[in-house]
Design brief:
By secondary structure, the chain is an alpha/beta fold. The protein has helices spanning 11-16, 26-38, 48-79, 88-91, 94-115, 126-151, 159-190, 204-215, 232-243, 256-268, 308-342, 372-375, 401-408, 416-422, 435-438, 469-481, 485-501, and strands spanning 5-6, 195-200, 221-227, 246-249, 272-275, 286-292, 295-301, 348-355, 358-365, 426-428, 454-456. It has 3 domains: 5-45 and 194-283, Rossmann fold; 48-189, no CATH class; 308-501, no CATH class. The two termini are 32 Å apart.
Length: 506
Amino acid sequence: MQGIYSISKNWAKVKKLKFRANCATFRQQRFRYDLLRKSAKPYPKMKKADLFFNVLRLPMDFLMLLAAGATTYVFRTEILRTFKPVFFEFNLPLDRYLYLVVFVSILFIVLYTISGLYSMKVRMGITEEFLKVLVSSSATVMTVIVYIFLRQELFNSRFLVLGGWFFAVLFVFMGRMLVRYLQVFFVSKYDFGVHKIMIVGNEQAAANIIDDITKKPSSGYRIVKHLLKLEIEEIRSSARSPGVDEVVLTNHDYPADKIVELIDFCNENHLVFKFVPNLSQTLTANYEVDVINGMPLIELKRTALDGWGKVIKRVLDVFAGSLGLIIFSPLMGIVSFAIKWETEGPVFARLKRVSKNKEFDLLKFRGMIKNAEELKPYLAVFNERRDGPLFKIKNDPRITGVGRFIRRYRLDEIPQFWNILKGDMSLVGPRPHQPDEIKKYEKHHKRVLAIKAGATGLAQVSGSSDLPFDQEVALDTFYIENWSLFADFKIILKTLVKIFTDRSAT
């Protein structure tokens, strides 16, 4: 259900926007819906299953933390005692240790709460959940270390602290995976607390949503009605029988007064209203409101990346670029030697790319023959990407033997750390675009040029070159409009997983 947004209960905000119902142009209607989307709050109506399993996570975490503490103690006193004697009976007897475990476990729960692990979100990605557990657990252990230092109450085993941190992350995450499994099992097999959804619209988006929900019964959603047109009376009748929890609007081409009436109906009957923002119908997800002499002025912002966020992102890029060049310098020497040994030509390929409307030379290890670009027009008939301006051949004859190897293991992209350090591009961002491709882009495609391109990005970790071009643009646009440092860290982690598991690159 990615890309679907719920409308906030704060209907006062929507009322202030009702005057836009009489907008004469399609562009004005799009602007109104963008403001509606911005006013949307992540308050999803909690069904019994969601509420039950969200609450279950708290006692499960506490039990897992106690188990982690007990495991750490047994591991140190029984398994490791052959390597180092243990004298816990003198300075940390078992009863006092268990008391500390309970106290520290409560501290863990407090930090988990602050990090949002118990927020009533219907869905939280596994990667996001693991990162939150890891970061908040690390923060808790650092708090304990600082406390021990200030109190000057040191005990014999530092393993109790480090081992406790490791087992806490491991056990808590395993417990949460167990809760996820139980939720999927009960929802899929017994329809426990499912969400009944009505789809309104006849666009491809409606078909995609229906297909996705039908294939994934564990999602907790069930389609009970699909209306091709927005007919309020039919919606009223369907809401009574068979009953509806959520209404999803996939088409915005209906009259504005009908859409407002539908939102009114959903609010009056305590139904969740969601809509799918079409890529070509969306102006921006970010705006700021200023008031000058009593007149509101709305600034449309292309991205959430601004201010201190931009500064911090650049600092992280400099750090990542420097660290990457230092760590991989020996490997870069080996690859450089292999390239020069096999074929004539330079070690590096300098590819013209565009980042934020600025052209630069993207560095890669050369994996093709010397005159590869000159042969590109002759190979255009073999281009497998028919859905857009991109160029890709599965078994490109221009690729050398070394090139095929370094592409398979993504080693050809290591020199991009230099581009990141220079500021040509960022570690995370949209895909770098070729100038000749950009000339073929439609207007809405060019929105991906709002920020610096990235060595990796949301589109790259979501399917890479297998994605249709419009879907790639949609993912990059979503990243631009919803940028956050946490999102960057998630993408970096997914990239590392993809590097070690995906061998589809050629």
